Amino acid sequence: MPIRELTPDDLEPLGRLHRVAFGRSDPVEARPGTRGLAAELDGRLAGALAISDFHQFWGGSTVPAGGIGGVAVDPWARGRGVASALLDAALRDMRDRGQALSVLYATVPALYRSRGWERSGVFERLDFPLDRIPAGARADTRPAVEGDLAALHACYCDLASTVNGMLDRAAPAFRAADVLERAVVSVVPGHDGEVRGYLTAERDAEGLRVHDLVARDAATQLGLLAQLRSWAGVLERVAVRVTDPATTGLLTDQAIRFTTTASAWLLRVVDLPAAVAARGWPAAEGLTTTVDLEVVDEHAPWHAGRRRLVVEDGRVRVEAGGGGDVRLHARALGPWFSGMQDSSALRRAGLLDGDGRVLDRLVGAPGVPRLADFF
């Protein structure tokens, strides 16, 4: 089955495919930082997917990742292996381009699991009654302007670098000026052009939807929460996208029951040595040890087989060789790398054999991996 890159000539048939697959009526446009793959059958476009150029924070460092989206197969071509062929080609493409990880939101998890992706984090929205937001002084805010864009991004990255899984929102996949298109963009200014925190939101028929509530300190977070509370009398509730788990988990007065909407995302280790080399490993400081692995991955044979994980005082690398004492299925690599599942859970799921306690120690317990962007 021929698999090739999408070209501008494909935009019209791709738009028709998206209307059939997703019910979209908006025209398909090429986006910076995103490329596409197309599958052909009988000389016609049978399926397609998009790969965005992302970087995810893991252990405080960014790891290049391919964000998979828009996976669609024309109804006449379904059941003929089109989606599987596209995913196999995407794995090779991402490896060739140095994207050591791949992340996606799965509407059909079985398809992606068959190719090595596995649930590794969450995207959450919380629905808050306004009376669950602590009363207090509002932050001294002003509307954002174009000159704030670099400082806004720096403020976001200071937070995101401490939350495993978050994207760095770098160009070209992200356009910094897009934040100014939000209906609400409130900035808490600091000294010398610094931003202490900011709030972005949209108002629609369902109420107020908060996209980002980001702050460098508790006082600024509480001040921005107080700004949300000022909507009392107009609205009863607000929907908050969880960008900072400290804001929603530690600084609001959630009762024993609350409403949350969680979207699971799946992670795939595309190139284990490259992913391990790029990731930060705070828990490896002062640790010197090795773990002999056997990686079972028929769809990424370049890192399959016996590998040795070498830990030397904060640095971790993967090299060929070893005795294969810990056997890891491809689907185990993502949840382990993210810290979403420990070796005991992976063993119970049939994805790991052997003693994985050192693997657990390396990833530590940094909290639930999160994304705050949907693609």
TrEMBL record:
<feature type="domain" description="N-acetyltransferase">
    <location>
        <begin position="1"/>
        <end position="136"/>
    </location>
</feature>
<dbReference type="Pfam" id="PF13530">
    <property type="entry name" value="SCP2_2"/>
</dbReference>
<dbReference type="InterPro" id="IPR025559">
    <property type="entry name" value="Eis_dom"/>
</dbReference>
<dbReference type="InterPro" id="IPR036527">
    <property type="entry name" value="SCP2_sterol-bd_dom_sf"/>
</dbReference>
<dbReference type="InterPro" id="IPR000182">
    <property type="entry name" value="GNAT_dom"/>
</dbReference>
<dbReference type="InterPro" id="IPR051554">
    <property type="entry name" value="Acetyltransferase_Eis"/>
</dbReference>
<keyword id="KW-0808">Transferase</keyword>
<dbReference type="GO" id="GO:0016746">
    <property type="term" value="F:acyltransferase activity"/>
</dbReference>
<dbReference type="Pfam" id="PF13527">
    <property type="entry name" value="Acetyltransf_9"/>
</dbReference>
<keyword id="KW-0012">Acyltransferase</keyword>
<protein>
    <submittedName>
        <fullName>Enhanced intracellular survival protein Eis</fullName>
        <ecNumber>2.3.1.-</ecNumber>
    </submittedName>
</protein>
<dbReference type="InterPro" id="IPR016181">
    <property type="entry name" value="Acyl_CoA_acyltransferase"/>
</dbReference>
